[in-house]
Give the backbone structure.
Amino acid sequence: MQQCQRTVVASAIFGNYDILQQPENISESSKDTVCFFMFLDEETEAALKNSTTIDHTKRIGLWRVVVVRNLPYSDARRNGKVPKLLLHRLFPNVRYSIWIDGKLKLVRDPYQVLERFLWRKNVSFAISRHYRRFDVYEEAEANKAGGKYDNASIDYQIEFYKREGLTHYSSAKLPITSDVPEGCVIIREHIPITNLFTCLWFNEVDRFTSRDQLSFSTVRDKIRSRVNWTADMFLDCERRDFVVQSYHRELLEQRQATLRSRPPLRPPMVQIQPRKMLPDNASKEPGKASSAKKLPGKRTRDKKSSSKRSHRTKVVGGKEAIQL
C-alpha cells in the first residue's frame, strides 16, 4: 500500500454483503500505474475461497486483496467507512483516489473518470448527488421508512444537527445543488483540505449512525464557513455512466431463489376463431362478395303461374317442342 504512488481505486466488502466484480474497459496504462485494492474481512474471504481462486500474490483479477482483521466495529457497514473515508491514511503516497462501494462495478478507465470530474472542472473533491432527495430531513425519513437504522438514533442525530444550524434545502443555498449525496462513489485529490473533510466526516459516522448521507452537508457547511472550499456534486446519471450497480448478495440470492421456486410459465393460449362457412355459390375470388342463395319458400299458385321457366312437352315428329 505504501508503494502505491499516484492513483488508487479502492473498494471493500465486509460481512460477505456483496459480490466481488471486476473492473472493465481498463487501459494498459492504467493497469501499469493505477493500484486496485479490495478490502475484505475474514468472513468474506472464506466465502470467496469457495468460489474464487486467490493466487500467491493475493490478487483476484485486477484487485489486490487485503484481508482486514481485528475490526473496530461489530457493524459491517460502519467498518466499511474506514477505508471509504480514510484512504489518505491507508495510502500516504497517493495523489488521487476513486472509491466505489462493493456493490458497484467500474466500467470506465480511472484516468477518464479523474479527467471528467476533477481535472476538467479544476476541483479537488467530487461526489454524485442523490437521484431523488435533496433535503437531509427527507433523507432521514426515508432511512427510517427503509429500516436502514433504528429510528431513535436517526432522530437523535437530526435533532443534534438542527441545533447546530441544519435547515431544509432550498434555492437560497445555490450554487449548492443538494444536501444529500449518493455516497457510493467518491473521487478526490489527496490534499490537506479534502483530507480534513473526510476525517471530520468519518468522525460523524463514528459519533452517530453509519448513514453518511445524513452528516455530509453538516461537515461541508462547517468547512465552507471558514474557507473557500466546497465539494462538487455531479448528477447521479453521470455516476451511472462509469459504474454499474448490482444487487447486494442477500437480495440477489432472494431473487434467484424466487425465480427457481416459480413454476415454469405455460405457453400463451392462442384462441383460433372458427372459420365462417361460405355458401356454395360464394365467390372464390378475393374482393368479390356474394350473397347467400335464398331457399325458396312454399310455392303458391300465383308464383308458379308467373314464373318464367321453360317446360318440356311431348315429342312431335321426332323433335322436342319447347313451349315458353
